[in-house]
Design brief:
The protein has 424 residues and is of the alpha+beta class. 29% of the residues lie in helices and 28% in strands. The chain contains twelve helices and 22 strands. The strands form six sheets. Strands 11, 14, 17, 18, 21 and 22 form a six-stranded antiparallel β-sheet that branches. α1 links the parallel β1 (2-8) and β2. It starts with a strand and ends in a 17-residue tail after the last strand. The mean pLDDT is 96. The protein binds adenosine monophosphate and glycine (GLY). Adenosine monophosphate binds next to β6, β7, β15 and β16.
């Protein structure tokens, strides 16, 4: 039996704990800091790396890191130095997410398909470049910016304003010391996530996120308002292409360059004319993609995590998935991703339903009540024989849950309807 510490407090971390708790090989699961839905919460924040290491050492547990911030801060390196078992990439390897400049240069020198780009730290030179190109641009801050550092422009004036915002007004602080100007690719987006031991990579199920806050993909970008799995955007042929030319190439080139990547590798893909382009890499599971993906996972997750740490992934069979579809609809507090109220009591969480599970994110428990405590509050995740069935199950469960500022998109999964399912 292995005890586990899950680092993080979102819906993704609740889902990881939920899936791991089904394993006969797993004992106690701790969450640091966790949320109102997770059990055995430990009052340590994700950036308190030394405290987390001390806890993991006392409890002799295996640590699994959910979010990017502690990975970029080097949690894996600190734990490894102390001989503590931990799942995730080192600080150097996590640069694939924490520095978009690093990731773009890595893709360029290794021939991994991505939009063409230039890097700037000087606003005047960046603006000259804007004037010189014929295509529409996307302006990206180099470092972590909680999903807000990317500005998709419609014309040259918007690109110039974006350059001013990041390089002159320094809206993202040090994360915006350098910018990328890249060609805008108009296609369909999907998420392709794999688990790797540094040498081989096994695909997780495909999924599609809904990043904009309002129905019809309108309004500002968010951390993700819902996701479903599998997605027909990535058919079997495209999946093989991405697995070979994006994931396996990335893993083998990182190893060759001395920054071996162990952990979940997430490729945000834009598909155009049947071809994949990598928009971004994340060095972790997606949130909310994790919730529907794990609901479909038949294999024991802890086996794959342990084998990734041990470098023995190739000794395991490929991961097996339920053929059903799963959907996660995020319930947020009105106002997210800007300002929103907190501390509202959530009712209806006790309703039972064998087709769905309510993963908590921004919640806390106070005096036996569950209160809102963040922008993304819950991830109602449901399974169904078809995508439409899963969508209906999720929204039926949502009807029973309420608080004054509850808000969700009403069209999660809709863009996946009308095409065949059955792929992974
Ligand atoms: P990123 O964090 O780099 O994935 O960017 C956030 C979002 O911006 C993506 O999910 C896309 O919707 C959009 N985006 C990023 N790069 C591009 C691009 N080259 N062309 C079109 N849209 C993009
Ligand atoms: N859902 C997108 C992300 O986790 O970055």
């Amino acid at each position: 039996m292995v005890d586990i510490l899950v680092v993080g407090s979102g819906g993704r971390e609740h889902a990881l704990g939920w899936k791991l708790s089904q394993s006969p090989k797993v004992g106690t699961i701790y969450h640091a800091p966790g949320n109102g839905g997770t059990s055995n919460n430990v009052d340590i924040e994700v950036h308190e790396i030394e405290k987390l290491a001390q806890f993991a050492s006392e409890k002799k547990c295996l640590t699994i890191v959910g979010p990017e911030v502690p990975l970029a801060a080097g949690i894996v390196d600190v734990f490894a130095k102390k001989g503590l078992a931990i799942f995730g990439p080192t600080q150097d390897a996590a640069r694939i997410e924490s520095s978009k400049v690093w990731a773009k240069n890595f893709m360029k020198r290794n021939g991994i398909p991505t939009a063409c780009f230039e890097i700037f730290d000087d606003a005047a030179k960046a603006k000259e470049y804007v004037k010189s190109v014929s295509y529409t641009l996307v302006v990206k801050a180099d470092g972590l910016a909680a999903g807000k550092g990317v500005i998709v422009c419609n014309d040259k004036q918007e690109a110039i304003s974006a350059i001013d915002k990041i390089l002159v007004e320094k809206s993202f602080g040090a994360s915006g010391a350098r910018i990328i100007l890249e060609e805008r690719i108009d296609g369909v987006e999907a998420s392709y996530i794999a688990i790797s031991d540094g040498t081989v990579a096994y695909p997780m199920a495909t999924s599609q996120d809904h990043k904009r806050v309002y129905d019809g993909d309108r309004g500002p970008n968010t951390g993700g308002m819902g996701a479903y799995s599998p997605t027909s955007v990535i058919d079997d042929t495209l999946a093989q292409d991405i697995q070979k030319n994006v994931i396996e190439k990335t893993i083998s080139c990182m190893k060759k360059e001395g920054t071996t990547f162990c952990g979940f590798l997430y490729a945000g893909i834009m598909v155009k004319d049947g071809k994949p382009f990598v928009l971004e890499f994340n060095a972790r599971m997606g949130d909310p993609e994790c919730q529907p993906i794990l609901m479909r996972m038949d294999s024991d997750l802890v086996d794959y995590i342990q084998a990734s740490i041990d470098g023995t992934l190739s000794s395991l069979p490929k991961i097996s998935w339920k053929r059903q579809s799963a959907v996660c609809v995020v319930l947020a507090s009105k106002g997210y991703p800007e300002s929103y109220p907190k501390n509202e009591e959530i009712l209806g969480l006790d309703a039972q339903d064998s087709n769905s599970y309510v993963f908590h994110a921004g919640t806390k428990r106070v005096d036996g009540k569950v209160l809102t405590n963040g922008g993304r509050v819950l991830g109602v995740t449901a399974i169904g024989d078809t995508l439409q069935g899963a969508i209906s199950n999720a929204y039926a469960r949502i009807e029973k849950i309420g608080w004054p500022s509850k808000y969700c998109r009403t069209d999660i999964g809709k863009k996946g309807l009308g095409s065949s399912t059955g792929q992974t």
